[in-house]
C-alpha cells in the first residue's frame, strides 16, 4: 500500500476497549491494544497516502448477542420487546436504546475505505449508539 501511495487499514474494535465489562476484562484489554496498534500503524504510515483507523463498535445485533439477550430477559418475548427490555435494564446508557445493526458499522467502514476519508487517519471512530458516555473515544 505504501509503495502504491494509497491504501486503507481498518480495524474493528469494541466499546469494551473504553468501557471494559468486569466479566470480559481479557476481551477489553485486547480491544484497547488494538486501538494502540492501529494508532501506531497510522503514525508509521504518515505521509504515504495510507490511512489507518479503528471502528469502535457498540452493542451489536448478532446471533450470539441474541442468545446473550435471551439469557437475561424473558425468552417468550418477541425479539423487539426482548431487545428493548435488555437495553433498558442492561445497557441504559445507550442513547439509541437498541442494538446496532451490523450494516450500521459497515457504513462507517465503507466511508473509511473510500477516497472520501483521505484526511481521516489515526482515529478511533465510534459507531456505538451513544453507549460510551464520553465526547471523546
TrEMBL record:
Reactions catalysed, as given in the entry: a (3R)-hydroxyacyl-[ACP] + NADP(+) = a 3-oxoacyl-[ACP] + NADPH + H(+)
Gene3D superfamilies the record matches: NAD(P)-binding Rossmann-like Domain (3.40.50.720)
InterPro entries hit by this protein: NAD(P)-bd_dom_sf, Sc_DH/Rdtase_CS, SDR, SDR_fam
Assigned keywords, A-Z: Cell wall, Secreted
Molecular function in Gene Ontology: 3-oxoacyl-[acyl-carrier-protein] reductase (NADPH) activity
Major localization class: secreted
Pfam families xrefs: adh_short_C2 (PF13561)
Entry's localization field: Secreted, Cell wall
Keyword flag Zinc-finger: no
GO annotation terms (biological process): monocarboxylic acid metabolic process
Family: Belongs to the short-chain dehydrogenases/reductases (SDR) family.
Entries under PANTHER family matching the protein: 3-OXOACYL-(ACYL-CARRIER-PROTEIN) REDUCTASE (PTHR42879), 3-OXOACYL-[ACYL-CARRIER-PROTEIN] REDUCTASE FABG (PTHR42879:SF2)
Designated name of the protein: 3-oxoacyl-[acyl-carrier-protein] reductase MabA
Organism: Mycolicibacterium conceptionense
Amino acid at each position: 500500500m505504501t509503495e502504491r501511495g494509497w491504501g486503507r487499514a481498518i480495524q474493528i474494535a469494541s466499546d469494551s476497549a473504553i468501557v471494559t465489562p468486569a466479566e470480559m476484562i481479557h476481551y477489553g484489554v485486547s480491544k484497547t491494544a488494538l486501538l494502540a496498534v492501529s494508532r501506531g500503524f497510522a503514525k508509521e504510515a504518515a505521509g504515504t497516502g495510507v490511512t489507518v483507523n479503528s471502528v469502535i463498535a457498540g452493542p451489536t445485533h448478532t446471533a450470539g448477542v441474541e442468545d446473550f439477550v435471551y439469557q437475561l430477559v424473558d425468552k417468550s418475548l418477541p425479539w423487539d420487546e426482548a431487545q428493548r427490555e435488555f437495553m433498558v435494564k442492561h445497557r441504559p446508557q445507550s442513547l439509541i436504546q437498541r442494538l446496532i445493526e451490523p450494516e450500521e458499522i459497515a457504513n462507517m467502514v465503507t466511508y473509511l475505505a473510500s477516497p472520501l476519508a483521505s484526511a481521516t487517519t489515526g482515529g478511533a471512530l465510534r459507531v456505538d449508539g451513544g453507549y460510551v458516555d464520553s465526547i471523546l473515544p
